[in-house]
Every structure is written in C-alpha cells, then in structure tokens.
Design a protein that fits this description.
By secondary structure, the protein is of the alpha+beta class. The chain has one domain (about 5-69). It is built from one helix and three strands. It has a three-stranded antiparallel beta sheet. The longest helix is centred in the last third of the chain and has 20 residues, at about 50-69. It is elongated.
C-alpha cells in the first residue's frame, strides 16, 4: 500500500454498460495523508494491485494538493 493513502473500504458493484451489458467496478474509499476521505471507482479491468495503486495514489496526491491550496 502506498504511503499517500490508506484504504478504508472496497465494495464490488455492477452497472449497465454503454453497450447494454453488465460491468463490474470497485468503489474504493481511501483516506489521504491530509485526512481527506475520497471515494474512487475503478473498473474491473483496472482492478489489479499495480493499476489500482497508481490510480489511488494519483487521486490522493491531487486531493492533498487541493487541500493545501
């Protein structure tokens, strides 16, 4: 896990896709170093340890930058 955030909760959800099929996605709730709590949705294809960590790190860093501004 990255130092920029801590995962609080992960939920597996489904939605209707643009082509009409069902898509799975994962709703991640994280807390950043600046104590901001974010909810980030990640598609099933991107929900691997490497890709998810990259996505969550970017969101956490951006949120902390906004908080500091």
């Amino acid at each position: 896990m990255a130092n920029e955030y801590k995962v609080l909760k992960i939920d597996e959800l489904t939605r209707v896709g643009e082509a009409g099929g069902i898509q799975k996605y994962y709703r991640n709730q994280i807390r950043t170093k600046g104590k901001v709590v974010l909810t980030v949705d990640i598609n099933e294809d991107d929900f691997t340890p490497e890709k998810a960590a990259e996505i969550l790190t970017k969101k956490a860093v951006n949120a902390d930058k906004i908080l500091a501004a």
